[in-house]
Amino acid sequence: METISKTLRIFLTALILVNVVLMACVAYFFLNNERGLTAERIDIKDRSGKNRIVIANTDNIPQPIIKGKTYKRAYSPAGLIFYDKNGDERGGLAITDNEETNLNALAFDYQNADAIGILAQDNKHDNYFRAGLLINDKDLSGRPGHNINRINLLTENGNASLVMKDNHEVPRIILKVDSLGNPSIEMFDNNGKMKWKQ
Prior knowledge:
With 198 residues, this protein is α+β, with helices and mostly antiparallel strands. Helices cover 15% and strands 47% of the residues. It contains 1 helix and 14 strands, in the order H-E-E-E-E-E-E-E-E-E-E-E-E-E-E. The longest helix has 30 residues, at 2-31.
């Protein structure tokens, strides 16, 4: 028992000393580096070497990968990209700031395209703004980057609306409260022609 107790004491003492040295190194690093940790891109990989999360600036954001194939990204945001175990993009957080607009979005993807997104946008040269939630059906054709937009819950230039669409993306029901506070319910046929309004 005496040997085990002495070994345990030595182990705990060594562990405490290692932690003290580690904490001292971390404190030294942060106290002597006013900017903190800086990087243009950080790749978090699994054991096989595939990316699972990438954090990057606009110059280093990776192009989207769907079923192992790389495609061109519509915008080059700064942000955080999530990947599945096969290395395919499955969503992310994107911060886009260009000459025309600020657009921030959080998206989670099906295997081939966006499934759900939260966005906030305001333009720089006019008063246009919008924020909301977009929900898509999966495009079963499997075409990369394609989905079927079904539900939008948005505020846009002061007008709040819930838009529900059919599987051809034709708005069928719109619940709205406009910028003056007027509520309305609109129903449309499958050609997008208004059938009823209240």
